[in-house]
Amino acid sequence: MPLQKVRFAEDVPEVFRASLQDIRRELEVPAAFPPEVTAAALAAAGNARLPELDRTDLPFVTIDPPDSMDLDQAVHIERASTGYTVYYAIADVAAYVQPGDPIDLEARRRGETLYAPDKRTPLHPPELSEAAASLLPDQIRPAVLWTMTLDATGEGTAVTCERALVKSRAKLNYAGVQKDLDAGTAPEPLQLLREVGKLREQRELDRGGVNLPIPDQEVVTSNHGWGLEFRAPLPVEGWNAQISLLTGMAAAELMMKGKIGILRTLPESHDDLRRKLGNTAKALGIEWPDATPYAQFIHGLDPKVPANAAMLAACTVLFRGAGYSAFDGSVPEQPQHAAMKAEYAHVTAPLRRLVDRWTGEICVALSAGIEVPAWVRESMDEIPKMMDEADRRAHAYERSIVSMVEAGLVADQVGAEFDGVITEVDERENGRGVVALTKIAIEGRVTGTALPLGRQARVRLVEADIAKRTIAFELLH
Question: Would you say 143 and 164 are in contact if contact means Cβ atoms under 8 Å apart?
């Protein structure tokens, strides 16, 4: 479960505060920006390098959660004679940040924005990421503008990538857009977002790709104790995500043709992973026939159903092992992202992810037929290492927070019995494994004699320690 999906419905309970501080200290999560970085951001905010091309005529809108201020992307879609034209504006961080300046050096140390239930740890100072560089409404901003032509089936047929001035007309949120679409009152560009989004979803399914509609997992408190609630993502969130995926694939195609770039890659999953996910499906009472590919299985899950939501969260393991592959002069031997069944690059979130600044520069140069900037070529081999380290910290942060929350949810139930399914058994020691509880979306360590892999089991909770972020069960029968 991506950690930005873990949210508290109210203020963070005191019982978790100390543990969150421990997690941040252990993982060396950055605190406030150094004064020289903030000062550089303030100076850069008033001294952006602006492009000559003016596309403020395009009525862009942003669609994000209501409280988001770091707005990376703005979209506008028009119907064309034989299909569609998709305009996608991406915040141009490079208009404010120069190689080697304090903002750049601090961003290289951070790698990406980190999320927790109580706060964000941003990649760039908020003076840029939530103000000057953000695609806020009614503000003229420098952007990397992607113009993509699609045919009637949603397949891309042409793409350009160039710097331009843009102006968002409105800061929309998913719930509001979905409401307008359902009521039939949404303007044509948003109706086309739905139309193109559905076409792209079908193309994804046809090629065997996976894009997980992971629900928000919200921790709620009441007089009765702790609880978990799932908020299924709205359809418009998936359609909006498809525009980002379309852009990432277009970027990868430019890079492959130009023989220079940084791809997001993922090897094919192995049989053991398919078996583990199959056991999780059993634990949750979800049928998964052996002949059904995981892409088809996942597309059939309804995130509004709690058991399906938990299954989708478990399926995030399909994306583990993803990395970045930089190349210059020849293409990678394995360029694909296996979950997408396509070549793909991260280019649409430069305010929150370091690599997107490099890939954006590469694509602008390739699209214009000019040389990639020297600073990009000189440093691009370092970026995969920086991003791998940033991803490692982000995943560790995620795992620690989720474990802390899960321990808190059952901390007062030590000694209680639960039903579950053994989803994993240690190959070296049969008496140790993992159990997935049937009624609560929690997994934990379990010990016992001859653990029955993939079968129902009755277990007793023997440990739930918030400070240690551990949960442990023992097998009863």
Answer: yes
Closest CA to 246 of 360, 63, 87: 87
Q: Which amino acid is at 202?
A: Q
8 A C-beta contact, residue 359 and residue 251:
yes
User: With a threshold of 0.85, does the pTM exceed it?
Assistant: yes
What is the 3-state secondary structure of the chain?
A: CCHHHEEECCCCCHHHHHHHHHHHHHCCCCCCCCHHHHHHHHHHHCCCCCCCCECCCCCEEEEECCCCCCCCEEEEEEECCCEEEEEEEEECHHHCCCCCCHHHHHHHHHCECEECCCCEECCCCHHHHHHHCCCCECCEEEEEEEEEEEECCCCEEEEEEEEEEEEEEEEEEHHHHHHHHHHCCCCHHHHHHHHHHHHHHHHHHHHCCCCCCCCEEEEEEECCEEEEEEECCCHHHHHHHHHHHHHHHHHHHHHHHHCEEEEEEECCCCHHHHHHHHHHHHHCCCCCCCCCCHHHHHHCCCCCCHHHHHHHHHHHHHHCCCEEEEEECCCCCCCEECCCCEECCCCCCCCCECHHHHHHHHHHHHHHCCCCCHHHHHHCCCHHHHHHHHHHHHHHHHHHHHHHHHHHHCHHHCCCEEEEEEEEECCCCCCEEEEEECCCCCEEEEECCCCCECCEEEEEEEEEECCCCEEEEEECC
Torsion region of 285: left, alpha or beta (phi above 0 gives left; psi -120 to 50 gives alpha): left
Q: pLDDT tens digits, residue range 329-381? A: 999 999 999 888 999 999 999 999 999 999 999 999 999 999 999 999 999 99
Given this model, what pLDDT does residue 281 score? Answer: 85
| Torsion of Cα atoms, 80 then 254 then 129 then 389, to 10° | 140
* Below-50 pLDDT ranges, the chain: 1-5, 224-226
411-441 pLDDT, tens digit per residue, is 889 999 999 888 778 877 778 988 888 877 7
